Amino acid sequence: MKKDLNITELMHLIYAAATVITEDINGMGEHRPQTRRSTTPPWVRRTEDNINGIRKELSALVEIQRDGRKVKNIKRTRLLKKYNTETKESLDKLIEELKQKVSAKTQRLSIYKKRQTQYYQNKLFRTDCKKFYNRLRQPNPNLKKAPGKGEV
Q: E strand or H helix at 68, and its extent?
C-alpha cells in the first residue's frame, strides 16, 4: 500500500502535522493572544498614579480648610494625622506644598512627552519625509476653536 506522494500532497501532510503539534502545545487549538505590554514606561505610570493620589488628598485637604477644620470623616482624620497638621497655618503650608509637588511632577511628565514627540518626529523625518509633512499639515485634534462673540 505504498503510494508515491507528489510535492503538493507532501506539503499538505507536513502542514497538517504542524497544525496538530501546534494545537497540542497551545492547548487544543485555542488561540491565546499574547498580552500586549503598555507602551508607557513604568515610571510614567507610577508618576501619574502618584499625581492622582496627591490630587485626591489635596482636594480633601482643601475641603477640610473650607469647612473650618470640622473633621467629620474618618478618612479626613487619617489624612490630618498622616501629614501631622494641627494649625490652620500648617494646613495652608501643606496645601501649598502639595500643589507644588503636583506641579513639579506634571512638569516632568510634560517635558518627557514633548521629548518623545520630538524624537518621533525626527525619526519620521529621517525615514519618511512625506509622511512627516502630511502629519504636520493635519489639524491638531486637541485644539479647540475659540468661542465667538455670540457664544460668550
A: none
